[in-house]
Write a structure and sequence with these properties.
Blueprint: H1 5-18, E1 25-32, E2 41-48, E3 56-63, E4 66-69, E5 72-74, E6 77-87, E7 92-101, E8 112-122, E9 125-133, E10 144-152
Antiparallel strand pairs: 1-2, 1-10, 2-3, 3-6, 4-5, 6-7, 7-8, 8-9, 9-10
Length: about 150
């Protein structure tokens, strides 16, 4: 069994039993696409503001390193991000924003990244597909594509 399956299942079950969220905090776990044959995982903590249609999402995250990308390994990375969400409905949203990461690597080159997302949420549980990249603004532009499960509390 994948090492993230048990914590992820526990987050979903706990969130479904707990009812609607009263605060804007979310904890997330997820995985990334394979790069040179190696995927990795991430974890996040976010705060989503109370605006109904256009809330802000403020996020801090950790992306686990990879052992064999191109010419060497990719170390663990930390990031902070601010994104503006657009809620299409009660359950679907899109967002765009800016992220700052703590190091320049073969995957996320430069310290300034752009983040985009498409997501779904129901009560306290959310699932989103996100992309982080420098949009060609500095050197390489491989970027990270993420699948993120978030639980609000």
């Amino acid at each position: 069994m994948h090492k993230m399956a048990t914590p992820g299942a526990a987050l979903v079950v706990g969130a479904l039993l707990a009812g609607p969220a009263h605060a804007g905090w979310e904890v997330g776990v997820g995985g990334t696409q394979k790069i040179d044959g190696e995927p990795t995982w991430l974890t996040t903590v976010s705060y989503v503001t109370a605006q109904e249609r256009f809330p802000w999402e403020l996020m801090a995250g950790y992306i686990n390193g990879r052992g064999a990308i191109d010419h060497g390994s990719v170390p663990d990375q930390f990031l902070v991000a601010a994104s503006k969400r657009y809620n299409f409905s009660d359950t679907f949203y899109a967002s765009v924003g800016v992220a700052l990461n703590d190091r320049d690597t073969d995957v996320l080159s430069g310290h300034v990244q752009f983040q985009s997302a498409l997501g779904w949420h129901y009560q306290r549980v959310g699932l989103s597909v996100r992309h982080l990249s420098n949009a060609g603004s500095e050197g390489r532009n491989r970027g990270e594509t993420l699948l993120l499960l978030q639980v609000g509390f």
